[in-house]
# Entry
Amino acid sequence: MTWSQDVFTVLHTEAIGTIATVPDGGLVELLNLCEASDETTVVTLSTEEEGMGLLFGLHLGGSRGALFMQSSGTGNCINALSLPAITRTPCLMLVTMRGQQGEMNPWQVPMGQGVVPAFEAMGVTCLWARAADDIGPRFLQATDLAFGRGERVAVLIDQSVIGTKEFAK
Amino acid sequence: MSTGSLIDAGGRLMRRPLVARVMAARGGALVVTGLGAPTYDVAAAGEDGRNFHFWGAMGLAASAGLGLAMARPGTRVLVVTGDGEMMMGVGSLATIANIAPSNLGILVLDNQSFGETGEQSGLTAGPTDIAAMATGAGIADAEYIEGENRIEAMIGALYKHPGPVVRVARIAPGEDPKVLPEWDGPTQVRTFRQTLS
# Structure
């Protein structure tokens, strides 16, 4: 099983039917699995902060969703995180990291390095997955925290798992 | 249904009686309100467990309406928000157009200003047209409304047309007395979800 299949299995068993996303290269296999499934609706966003509103609306109506994005998108969510914070509603996020070891695009570094302090400032629990085998278990743990306790929680997938993007100049 | 006047001496729509008229026609609709005056306008029409009122998180009312509409496909969802709030989340109109929830209506109360912060001029006071932006986002059933002639048609569209539907109503500037609904988040969520179940 790939890590994408592990996460997809959790989506199925935990009845998480809507995936909001601004895509990332590291999410290709997982998003393809979601797109191909009759039980999962993928909502492509114009900016990640919309995901905070969408996940909240799903919860109000009795459904479950999650937000998948790359690390640069986390910064777009900061004030929007007020919504799940003040309402104590589930906010489940999966983040593929950029701007770590071996990053070739320096523009990815500032937000990549800012993800944890920015998220923690807004009360988001960050769970690191530093190996492919960690991702499924961490995502299941995050699901329990979000839907069981109304927390804001993000699984951060270390860039060493995804690999770096090559830029030929 | 109220038959009082919806317009002021200058022929401009007044937000409070307009929203009262819209709320009186809600039937079983679920309502999400954008922060500031739209929250007070809907509250002034009477508290209802099927309302969720934003008091912050500007720009997310339409996205929340989308999520609610997706979770409750058999129930009409109405978002009532202001021009500044809609502009902050204007990209969500494209997201909504692509998902195309048939049960979602959005009413934007356009006073062309930031009423909550001192009546500073808003972007729609200039050349910006939110109804045209909605059309450009891919929401074909979007219209700008001025005056009271087409209000009943507007209300019918918001609740009955296959969604998504956007109506941008040009309203008079100025502040009405604040009517403050529940602002505790968990209380609102609990009440809303209990009312649905």
Observations:
- The CA atoms of residues 105 and 165 of chain B lie 5 Å apart.
- The interface with chain A takes residues 30, 32, 52, 54, 56-72, 89, 91-92, 94-95, 98-99, 185-186, 188-189, 192-193, 196-197 of chain B (CB under 8 Å).
- Chain B has a mean pLDDT of 96.
- Residues 185-196 of chain B form the longest helix (12 residues).
